[in-house]
């Protein structure tokens, strides 16, 4: 029987991470992040729609869009002219994007921490390496989900079946 080398000890079995957790635990983080993203979008999406419309009106000619005097006026105006559904415009890409973003983020963050621990040969990461792990995961999420956020914003700005054109 051969004696274990330092490389053998540093390499975790394929089904577990360096700190002994199995792959299922990493997927639990991904699922929990995705579910949290879904819940937050369902409750807060109307505020996101109003925020997006208020931000866009600053760069638009007054004749193309209604001029809102604030958040309450934007909600009242949208509900009066377009109905309650206007506050949930762009909901599908927001749900898909948020669940995808948070799911990928938590999974990638845990994987990045795992890989950085193995690379450094340590049991715990220092704050700088933890921050690097978070940046790696965040960068991946931005690249993957950016098209969904563009679609969500375009849908939030539609009024009566037409899209608002941004001033150029």
Describe this structure in words.
The chain contains 5 helices and 2 strands. With 168 residues, the chain is mostly helical. It has a two-stranded antiparallel ribbon. Helix 4 runs antiparallel to helix 5. The radius of gyration is 22 Å and the shape is elongated. The C terminus is likely disordered. Keywords: Membrane, Repeat, Transmembrane, Transmembrane helix, Transport. InterPro entries: MCP, MCP_dom_sf, MCP_transmembrane, SLC25A32-like. Belongs to the mitochondrial carrier (TC 2.A.29) family.
Low-confidence stretches: 11-20, 162-168
Shape: elongated
Task: Report the span from N to C terminus.
Answer: 73 Å
In round numbers, the mean pLDDT is 81
How many H/I helical runs? Answer: 5
Give the amount of beta strand, in percent.
under 5%
Helix content: 55-70%
Tags for this entry?
single chain, 168 residues, mainly alpha, two-stranded antiparallel ribbon, 2% strand, disordered C terminus, transport, transmembrane, MCP_dom_sf
What's the short story on this structure?
By secondary structure, this protein is mainly α.
SSE layout and pairing:
Layout: H1 6-10, H2 23-57, H3 71-82, H4 91-120, H5 127-156, E1 158-159, E2 162-163
């Amino acid at each position: 029987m051969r004696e274990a080398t330092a490389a053998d000890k540093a390499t975790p079995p394929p089904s577990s991470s360096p700190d002994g957790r199995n792959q299922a635990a990493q997927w639990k983080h991904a699922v929990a992040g995705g579910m949290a993203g879904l819940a937050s979008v369902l409750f807060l999406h109307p505020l996101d729609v109003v925020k997006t419309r208020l931000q866009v009106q600053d760069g638009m000619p007054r004749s193309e869009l209604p001029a809102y005097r604030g958040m309450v006026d934007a909600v009242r105006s949208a509900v009066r002219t377009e109905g309650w559904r206007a506050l949930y415009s762009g909901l599908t890409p927001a749900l898909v994007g948020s669940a995808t973003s948070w799911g990928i983020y938590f999974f990638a963050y845990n994987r990045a921490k795992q890989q950085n621990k193995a690379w450094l040969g340590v049991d715990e990461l220092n704050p700088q390496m933890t921050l690097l792990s978070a940046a790696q995961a965040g960068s991946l999420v931005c690249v993957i989900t950016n098209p969904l956020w563009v679609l969500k914003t375009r849908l939030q700005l539609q009024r009566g079946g037409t899209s608002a054109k941004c001033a150029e």
